Structure formats: structure tokens, C-alpha cells
Amino acid sequence: MIEIERTVKPVREISLIPLINVVFLLLIFFLVAGTLDRFEVLRVDPPVATAGDEVNQGPIVVVLGRYEEMLVDDSLISPAELGAEIKKRLKVRPDRMITVKADARMKADRLIEVLDDINEAGGKTLTIATQRP
Amino acid sequence: MYFARNERRTRPIPLTPLIDVVFLLIVFFMLSTTFIRIQAMELGLPGNAEGKGVAGASPLLIDVAGNGGVYWQRELVLPTTLRMRLETELKRDPNRKVLVRSGKGITVQKLVSVLDIVYLAGVKDVAVDKWDEGDLPVPVTPEAMEKEDKALGKAIEQEEENTPVLKQEEIDALPKGRFTPQEQFEDMIEGLE
Question: Is this prediction's pTM over 0.80?
Fold first, then answer.
């Protein structure tokens, strides 16, 4: 009987180098392309607009939630306290920019009232936050 | 004498822990990064402009009504028309002010959409104010148009009555001149000859 020799293939390990290459690429992509989100006390959805400049959020941020909750620099306040809070923050530098971050579904009347209050308290540079579509 | 050296086999560095860590980092960055960029629009309030004393040109009025209609100087317009009119106005005066009034019950998104059009048209000085829709323009009805036509007709008749009619000798006394295109053309030909 003729014996046929079987060719035994050596079992090679799966090469991990290409995997690591791809994973490192992904890591670098997320590091460079994304921005780390600041922790938001109240999640709001700013209105969509194509105009508007990309600016750093002003030093004073007034957040207006969908149900008219109001936050100044991440602390919850009642609408009556707004004027005093703004005045307190403008004492040292009166020209500080104030950004109002209002939810898109909120009533515009209320936003304008808040803007008026801020204006009365001495806020000169007012901006409203928007997002790109 | 011969000492057997215990030769260490060169083993490859295990990569599994490295991959574990890298995957963890990827998952962390995927979950924590956002690609939304927050932008900002600068706004004025009607009260702000008082001190500057820009007399003369009153601000252009844009009203956003609660029913969704947008009014340009009290005239109902489409958003595209709004932008065209704004651009025409800005050609005349690039520093023209605009006052956007927000009607009852409109959302911030609606107001910002109108502000967006205003900014895209190139307006620099924009103010916002509340509006109680008290002076909402009345839609034009056929009856109203007929009434206006009649009034206009009467005014024209009145004007005609008041215009003095010249007599023939008065017309003859007027200075003579050759003013019609035909006469001017004839003069020109004569001059060439």
C-alpha cells in the first residue's frame, strides 16, 4: 500500500498588527475631530441657524430650559433673582459677554423678557446660542 | 567544563492587554465626544439704541405673527422675499437698523429662523422686541379694494376740476420750443446736413 504523506499546514497565529493599526487610527480620529462635552446641568436644544459666528461661550451663561427653568452659570435660580445675579457678575468687569442658551421649543416672549431683564441689569453684549443644522 | 546555559526563548510581546486598553479608550472617546458646535448670534434690544442717537432712519420693521406669518413693514411676505427686500434696503444704507418683533406664542426657533434670514442678508444691527399684535395689518378684501378705488377716483376728479384750463391765446403765449422726439430728430438731421 502506498502511503500518501499529508502536508500538515502549520497553524499560524492571527496577525494582530493590522487590527492595532486600525484601532489606533480610530482613536486618533475621535481625539482630533470631536470635542469633549462639558457636563450640562440642564440639557437644552438650541435653535438651528446657519448664520452666527463660532464663538466661545461667553463668560456668563444663562440657560433657559424648555419649561422656563433658569440657570446662571450652572446654578438654578428663580426669575426674580436674575437681575441681582447678573449685577453681581458684572461688578468687576461690566463689559462681560452674556450668552443666553435657550431651548428652541421655548416661547420667544419669555426669552425677550429675560433679555430685557439682563439689559436692565447692565448687560451690554448679549448673544443667543444657536447650532448649525 | 561545560555549563549548560539556559537559553531563554524570545517570546513575542503579548499584545492583548494593549488592545484591551486601546479599545477602552476608543469606547470612552466615542461616548463622550460631541460634534455639535455651539454658535452665537449677537442681539440688541430696542432700549440699547436710545443713547446712540442715530436720528433719521427709523428701523426697518419685521413682525413675526403668532400664526406664522412674517410681515415686512406691515406687509405679509415670504421668507425669500424678505431677504431680497432687506438686501435692496441695505444697498441704499448698509448700516440700516432692523427691529424684529415677535408675536404671541411663537417659539424661539421661529424667531431665530427669521433672525437668521436677517443676518444672512447682511444686517449688522438687529434688535428684538415683544409684539402684542395689536397693529396686525388687516388682510386686503375685495370690498376694501373697491372702496379704495372709488376714493382714488374721486381724488383724481377733484384734481382735474382744480387744474386751470388754458385758453387758446394763453397756449399761444407759452414759449415756443421743439420738444417732441420727432422734432428733435428733425433738428438733428438738419444739423448734420
Answer: no
